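Quick start: what a row looks like.
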Amino acid sequence: MRPRFLSLACSILFLSLISTVTAVPARCSDSPSGSRASNESVEGTVVSSTPNTLVVRTDDNQFQLFTYDGADARTRPIAQGARVRVVAGAADENGTRPANDVAVLAASSSITAESRGAGQSRDKGFQAAPVPNQVRDVENDIRRESQRWRLGVRAGAALNPELFSFGVQSQMGPIFNPRVLFRPNAEFAFGEVTDLIALNLEGIYRFSNAERRGIWTPYVGAGPAMIFIHQNFQAGRQIDFGNFDYETGLNILAGMQSRRGTFLELKTSLYSGPAPKLRLIVGYNF
């Protein structure tokens, strides 16, 4: 009764993830005219600039975190203290806004010279204001997520047969497209009668770019699997690597990953004989 209940629960969760993933493109398919209508211009002083983010302090001493919406908006890192005008869209749930255009109005050296005049005291007051921790945290999350190579760990449970698994993975990319990543991983699983070693060469497609995403972003993926399986139905477990049978399969997966690196994933293996039919995995990318 318990395995059937676990199988049903995992199936419901898998269908929920699929429905979430398929709903995202519909939400992202807003008309271009509506996107342009929501744009507004913001002027301020650059606090920090990276290839993926831009933090600007406005004249009313508010801090805005921008990402770059497309290659046309990207510029070389702008010096701290420069005066800029940013045309950006609506903010996401973290307060991050996609910048469509960034124009440098005055270099940092020019601002320093002007600050010697009557506005010097006001500018010092702005410099004394610390950047909010929330802005720094989101900026660091985006920087970490934009790394081209990351190492991760994973653990989970499998059904039919019932196994406990753990493993390591590497995330590389983007490859060919900002949303496509190569994520090879190795899994080691143990059960009552079954032991398994799997080498998976998987790729995933995220439904938003690393720098323009919410707290959680859904993804789908697939890839070949090289599976080594050992089954022993006799009393007393004795693992002999010479008795492992080799199987090949195709993994199909769907999941959600957070900016901070945590991910939740459901995966099934096709054409792989006695390999698990459904796996629930929790992991973290450093």
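That is the whole record. The CA atoms of residues 81 and 285 lie 34 Å apart. Helices lie at 2-27, 32-37, 108-114, 120-128, 133-145.
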